[in-house]
């Protein structure tokens, strides 16, 4: 029960990694605010958590809207248990490169993937300060560590890295830690079934996609006091993609020749 007595917000919690994180955090004792724009799967998840003996509250949240965050803050204050954990997980992608991308795509991706965590940290950090400190986990991507075919997505995740490190610096005064997870290929609705899925899998040294629970386990570590002296760090959860994928094809080729 590593989050016993704590309150956690998980954004984009109706699907994929966010849903798995919300369930895990509830099993670890947290009261979880399950936040998403998708109401019915979000409510169903909160009900499933409650039927398994956990504590969860669904809150419709559009991470790109400041008013929506203000409504969430009001709900958290009404619950009266403070706030200790925020996982900025909600994210979207549009699969066009720089030349094909529209301004609507660019604005849409940046508003969810970059403005969203910024608005979330500004809304939630004061509640964490008043609760004696907290942990923010921002979900980035390998596309925030290297070049990526979707320029707007990469720009949003690189931006989130800079934002996270700046927030780690500023919020340390309030005992609020800010760290990032950079997933590689994860089997979720965002990417499963696309051509990018197979291409990434073939370049991943562990030769498979991650399960969402393998990312959620790292989110739990960063959310809990187990990581109490970590702030401002990047944690790739990518089966070795970032460290060694450039040699993946060379290695396969050498084995075939020998
Ligand atoms: N799946 C991967 O391989 C992968 C790899 C690297 C990074 N990521 C990142 O992981 C995070 C989670 O992705 P996933 O794969 O679980 O995707 P997913 O599509 O399964 O889930 C994303 C969730 O975010 C929600 N969402 C979208 N816009 C929102 C908004 N404006 N406000 C609130 N919620 C909103 C969606 O409704 C959905 O429930 C994203 O930030 C994504 O960029 C995913």
UniProtKB/TrEMBL annotation:
The keyword Chloroplast does not apply. Keywords: Oxidoreductase. The keyword Magnesium does not apply. Its EC number is 1.1.1.47. One of its GO terms (molecular function) is glucose 1-dehydrogenase [NAD(P)+] activity. It holds the Pfam family adh_short_C2. Belongs to the short-chain dehydrogenases/reductases (SDR) family. NCBIfam families: PRK07231.1. This is Glucose 1-dehydrogenase.
């Amino acid at each position: 029960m590593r989050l016993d007595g704590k309150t956690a917000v998980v954004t984009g919690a109706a699907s994929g990694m966010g849903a798995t994180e919300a369930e895990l955090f509830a099993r670890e004792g947290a009261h979880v605010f399950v936040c998403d724009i998708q109401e019915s799967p979000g409510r169903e998840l909160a009900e499933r958590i409650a039927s398994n003996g956990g504590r969860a509250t669904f809150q419709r949240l559009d991470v790109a809207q400041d008013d929506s965050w203000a409504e969430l803050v009001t709900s958290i204050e009404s619950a009266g248990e403070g706030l200790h954990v925020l996982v900025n997980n909600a994210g979207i992608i549009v699969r066009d490169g720089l030349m094909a991308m529209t301004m609507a795509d660019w604005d849409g991706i940046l508003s969810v993937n970059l403005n969203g965590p910024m608005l979330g940290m500004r809304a939630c950090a004061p509640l964490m300060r008043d609760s004696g400190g907290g942990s923010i986990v921002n979900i980035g991507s390998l596309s925030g560590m290297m070049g990526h075919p979707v320029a707007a997505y990469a720009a949003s995740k690189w931006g989130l890295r800079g934002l996270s490190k700046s927030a780690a610096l500023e919020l340390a005064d309030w005992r609020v830690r800010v760290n990032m997870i950079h997933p590689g290929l994860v089997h979720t609705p965002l990417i499963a079934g696309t051509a990018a899925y197979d291409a990434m899998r073939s370049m991943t040294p562990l030769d498979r996609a991650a399960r969402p629970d393998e990312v959620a386990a790292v989110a739990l570590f960063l959310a809990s006091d187990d990581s109490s002296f970590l702030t401002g760090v990047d944690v790739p959860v990518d089966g070795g993609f970032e460290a060694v994928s450039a040699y993946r094809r060379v290695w396969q080729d050498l084995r075939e020749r020998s």
